[in-house]
Amino acid sequence: MEHPLSQFKYCPKCGSAHFEVHNEKSKQCADCGFVYYFNPSSATVALILNERDELLVCRRAKEPAKGTLDLPGGFIDMTETGEEGVAREVREETGMKVAKAEYLFSLPNIYIYSGFPVHTLDMFFRCTVEDTLHFKAMDDAADLFFLPLKDIRTKEFGLGSIRKGVGIFLEDMRKNKSE
Predict the structure, then answer these.
(1) Element of type H or E holding 44
(2) pLDDT (tens digit, 9 = 90+) per residue, 40-91?
(3) Structural domain boundaries in the chain
(4) What's the whole-number mean pLDDT along residues 132-136?
(5) Is 154 exposed, middle or buried (0-12, 13-18, 19+ CB in 10 A)?
């Protein structure tokens, strides 16, 4: 896969074509001196359990990995905190209102959008919602359902960071039950 910085041909400040690789995560303009740092985009993932310890999963409505399992979540808007972003994404994709969002862990990811690799930092939150009985697949979700933890197969999740994150979450749940 080509490095994402190779997509940027011109300086975003002055428009010069003398926009050259500065190091592995930045480019610098030889004309105006502007340095552009390529950093990951922030994204959130919601882990929502109902009273029967079933995990809310969705089926992706769009590429990448259309038709595979996923969790509610998405990109954080410019003025949002992680907690605000995960609450908004849950509302947009499920109609559910988040009462509490607890940060658990993060994972790096590469999300292919329109053929362009977007490096993300996916932040996983354990979310408590006001009502687990009323929800509807909306936005990026084609389907939405609760799945018993014992029936979850991580290989059915289409995105790498989600597969890994669900695996970490399930392992933590198993450890907590045995304590």
Answers:
(1) strand 41-48
(2) 999 999 999 999 999 999 999 998 899 999 999 999 999 999 999 999 999 9
(3) 4-37, 41-178
(4) 95
(5) middle
CATH among 3.40.50.2000, 3.90.79.10, 1.10.1200.10, 2.40.128.270 for 41-178? 3.90.79.10
* Mean pLDDT of the chain, nearest integer: 94
Q: With b meaning 16 or more CB within 10 Å and e meaning fewer, what string describes 65-79? A: beebbbbbbbbbeee
Nearest alpha-carbon partner for 72 in 112, 125, 28: 125
pLDDT at 98 over 80: yes
Distance separating alpha carbons of residues 145 and 125, to the nearest angstrom: 18
